[in-house]
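Technical note accompanying the year-one report. For the benefit of new consortium partners, we illustrate the data format agreed upon in the data management plan: each record pairs a sequence with a C-alpha coordinate string. No post-processing was applied to the example shown here.
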Amino acid sequence: KEIKPSSHRLELKKIGAATLIDNAYSTNPEGFTNIINDLKQVPGKKVLITPGIIELGQQTTEVHQKTGALAAGVFDTVILVGKSDRTKNLEVGLKSERYAGKIQYLQNSSQLWPEIDLLSKTHDWILLENDLPDNF
Protein backbone atom coordinates (compact mmCIF):
# COMPACT_ATOMS: atom_id res chain seq x y z
CA LYS A 1 0.00 0.00 0.00
CA GLU A 2 2.82 2.39 0.74
CA ILE A 3 4.97 1.77 -2.32
CA LYS A 4 4.54 4.56 -4.85
CA PRO A 5 5.50 4.35 -8.51
CA SER A 6 8.47 6.33 -9.77
CA SER A 7 7.58 9.49 -11.63
CA HIS A 8 6.98 9.07 -15.36
CA ARG A 9 7.32 5.28 -15.26
CA LEU A 10 3.89 3.81 -16.02
CA GLU A 11 2.42 6.39 -13.67
CA LEU A 12 -1.38 6.62 -13.91
CA LYS A 13 -3.01 10.06 -13.76
CA LYS A 14 -6.64 11.07 -14.20
CA ILE A 15 -7.13 13.96 -16.63
CA GLY A 16 -10.69 14.87 -17.48
CA ALA A 17 -12.47 11.70 -18.55
CA ALA A 18 -9.21 10.00 -19.53
CA THR A 19 -6.59 7.95 -17.77
CA LEU A 20 -3.12 9.14 -18.70
CA ILE A 21 -0.38 6.52 -18.63
CA ASP A 22 2.75 8.57 -18.11
CA ASN A 23 5.71 6.55 -19.31
CA ALA A 24 7.55 9.67 -20.42
CA TYR A 25 10.81 9.07 -18.60
CA SER A 26 12.34 6.42 -20.82
CA THR A 27 11.49 3.37 -22.87
CA ASN A 28 12.91 0.48 -24.82
CA PRO A 29 11.47 -1.69 -27.62
CA GLU A 30 10.31 -4.46 -25.28
CA GLY A 31 8.61 -2.11 -22.82
CA PHE A 32 6.93 -0.13 -25.61
CA THR A 33 5.65 -3.36 -27.19
CA ASN A 34 4.37 -4.65 -23.85
CA ILE A 35 2.35 -1.53 -23.05
CA ILE A 36 0.82 -1.53 -26.54
CA ASN A 37 -0.17 -5.19 -26.11
CA ASP A 38 -1.60 -4.45 -22.66
CA LEU A 39 -3.68 -1.56 -24.00
CA LYS A 40 -5.01 -3.81 -26.75
CA GLN A 41 -6.90 -5.69 -24.01
CA VAL A 42 -8.50 -2.57 -22.51
CA PRO A 43 -11.76 -1.15 -23.90
CA GLY A 44 -12.07 2.51 -24.83
CA LYS A 45 -10.73 5.11 -27.19
CA LYS A 46 -6.94 5.41 -27.03
CA VAL A 47 -4.24 7.85 -28.09
CA LEU A 48 -0.47 7.38 -28.29
CA ILE A 49 1.85 10.38 -27.95
CA THR A 50 5.55 9.72 -28.60
CA PRO A 51 8.73 11.03 -30.18
CA GLY A 52 9.80 7.39 -30.65
CA ILE A 53 12.68 5.56 -29.01
CA ILE A 54 16.05 7.27 -29.07
CA GLU A 55 19.48 5.66 -29.21
CA LEU A 56 18.61 2.60 -31.30
CA GLY A 57 21.32 3.22 -33.89
CA GLN A 58 20.95 0.97 -36.93
CA GLN A 59 17.83 -0.63 -35.46
CA THR A 60 15.84 2.64 -35.57
CA THR A 61 14.04 1.95 -38.85
CA GLU A 62 13.11 -1.66 -38.11
CA VAL A 63 12.02 -1.11 -34.49
CA HIS A 64 9.90 1.94 -35.27
CA GLN A 65 8.20 0.35 -38.27
CA LYS A 66 7.33 -2.76 -36.22
CA THR A 67 6.11 -0.64 -33.31
CA GLY A 68 3.99 1.50 -35.65
CA ALA A 69 2.45 -1.61 -37.22
CA LEU A 70 1.59 -2.97 -33.76
CA ALA A 71 0.14 0.38 -32.64
CA ALA A 72 -2.12 0.50 -35.71
CA GLY A 73 -4.43 -2.09 -34.21
CA VAL A 74 -4.71 -0.37 -30.83
CA PHE A 75 -4.81 3.42 -31.02
CA ASP A 76 -7.53 5.64 -32.48
CA THR A 77 -5.14 8.59 -32.61
CA VAL A 78 -1.33 8.71 -32.82
CA ILE A 79 0.51 11.94 -32.15
CA LEU A 80 4.15 11.97 -33.20
CA VAL A 81 6.34 14.58 -31.57
CA GLY A 82 8.86 16.11 -33.97
CA LYS A 83 9.84 15.08 -37.47
CA SER A 84 12.65 12.54 -37.25
CA ASP A 85 13.64 9.12 -38.58
CA ARG A 86 11.88 7.70 -35.52
CA THR A 87 8.52 9.38 -36.10
CA LYS A 88 8.61 8.95 -39.87
CA ASN A 89 9.21 5.21 -39.45
CA LEU A 90 6.43 4.93 -36.87
CA GLU A 91 4.14 6.47 -39.51
CA VAL A 92 5.41 4.00 -42.14
CA GLY A 93 4.58 1.14 -39.76
CA LEU A 94 1.10 2.52 -39.07
CA LYS A 95 0.36 2.90 -42.76
CA SER A 96 1.71 -0.58 -43.54
CA GLU A 97 -1.27 -1.90 -41.57
CA ARG A 98 -3.70 0.45 -43.37
CA TYR A 99 -4.15 2.48 -40.19
CA ALA A 100 -7.49 4.27 -40.39
CA GLY A 101 -7.06 6.46 -37.31
CA LYS A 102 -5.70 9.95 -37.06
CA ILE A 103 -1.96 10.61 -37.34
CA GLN A 104 -0.87 14.03 -36.16
CA TYR A 105 2.55 15.62 -35.80
CA LEU A 106 3.43 18.14 -33.13
CA GLN A 107 6.39 20.29 -34.02
CA ASN A 108 7.76 19.97 -30.51
CA SER A 109 6.70 19.08 -26.99
CA SER A 110 5.72 22.66 -26.09
CA GLN A 111 2.34 21.98 -27.76
CA LEU A 112 1.83 18.78 -25.81
CA TRP A 113 -0.19 19.76 -22.74
CA PRO A 114 -2.87 21.84 -24.50
CA GLU A 115 -3.33 18.88 -26.85
CA ILE A 116 -3.64 16.47 -23.91
CA ASP A 117 -6.33 18.67 -22.37
CA LEU A 118 -8.35 18.42 -25.60
CA LEU A 119 -7.77 14.67 -25.97
CA SER A 120 -8.88 14.03 -22.38
CA LYS A 121 -12.39 15.08 -23.39
CA THR A 122 -12.67 12.55 -26.23
CA HIS A 123 -10.41 9.61 -25.29
CA ASP A 124 -10.42 7.09 -22.45
CA TRP A 125 -6.68 6.33 -22.46
CA ILE A 126 -3.68 8.55 -23.28
CA LEU A 127 -0.24 6.93 -23.43
CA LEU A 128 2.77 9.23 -23.16
CA GLU A 129 5.73 7.17 -24.24
CA ASN A 130 9.37 8.27 -23.89
CA ASP A 131 11.28 11.48 -23.40
CA LEU A 132 8.48 13.97 -22.93
CA PRO A 133 8.86 16.87 -20.51
CA ASP A 134 7.29 17.26 -17.11
CA ASN A 135 5.15 20.36 -17.58
CA PHE A 136 1.94 18.96 -16.18
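Partners are asked to follow this layout when depositing records. Residues 52 and 86 are 5 Å apart (CA to CA).
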